[in-house]
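Exercise 7.
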Amino acid sequence: MNDLIYLDHAATTPLDSAVLDAMLPFLRENFGSASTLYSIGRAASEAVEEARISVARLINASPEEVYFTSGGTESDVWVMFGVPSAKEKKGRHIITSKIEHKAVLEPCKILEKRGYTVTYLDVDSNGLVDVDELAASITDETVLISIMHANNEIGTIEPVEEIGRIAQEKGIHFHTDTVQTVGHIPVDAPSIGCNSLAISAHKLYGPKGVGVMYIRKGSRVDRLMPGGGQENNRRAGTHNVPGIVGLGKAAELAGERMPSEAEETTRLRDALISGIESRIKDIRLNGDRIKRIPNNVNFSFEGVEGESLILLMDMNGICVSSGSACTSGSLDPSHVLMALGLRHEQAHGSLRMTLGKDNTMPQIEKVLDTLPGIVNKLREMSPLYSGECCPGGGCK
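Solution. The predicted structure, written as tokens, is:
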């Protein structure tokens, strides 16, 4: 394991040792339910509220605007059903983009079957939403706009502040999935102007199975899970106290480390991008080169199948992916890459490498020493690769 090079932090991050230390007492002696009145229950409740404060501080929110969930997917699904339900009398129109996470797109499909109209915005070749097109798509029936802060596959940062201003002017609920950005770049909920946002702990060195839904004061969102009165009667169920404590600690650490971590991962990211571009021909960098989160690298390799790349990289002790971990079992090409205008073969030949706080320049150098040989080997065996740049351009 010491020689393993892990480059799939967009899928999940390793649990920080300080986070584990914070969690352990609530797995052992302080095991009480946060809803009980005796001492170990009160200790659990206090820890939950301390974590709420830490998360709120990270996104510049009030603690009462922070609701704990099981993760980013639940938070997204909650708002995608909770807002239309709360505002059904106003209208039945939703605006989103073609590159959203499936936690947004799948609820949209369900809502369409229930009579809602959904506008799926196109993106440009770098994955950016056109704000003017979004504004022109708004109708009197629009009740919800959901555009992610940064895309999980290609790393493109969307113009969420502009979208937030438009949504506020029109009185429309604006939701943004910040799973890939919170803890890695500054996320200021009031500055974005969103009514809600989603966070997942395991993307910022916290535990799996816990997340956050931020709901701005005054925003109407029906509860997704009825039952007990937890989370101000908006999200029922016994609190995952160890997980919530871990998320709180991860949020605290992220606030302290973010500037230096972002600077270092950007340095490594740029070295990886420039190294690949100088050593391998017939490739395409996916996502915006400038408006990009610090840790994301995504390339398409002409004449290469992405799954083979992943397996051969793994054999060399390097963990990478071809896109979203939530759809890794699918044989379909990435809906994100297809939305950029890539051909099926290009989308299937993609590789995502996402960096973390423990990656080093020697690791990047090993990747750059390893990847070109693997690509060349696969191209020699490929009947699809002619040695000429991809038809239609787009390759280096």
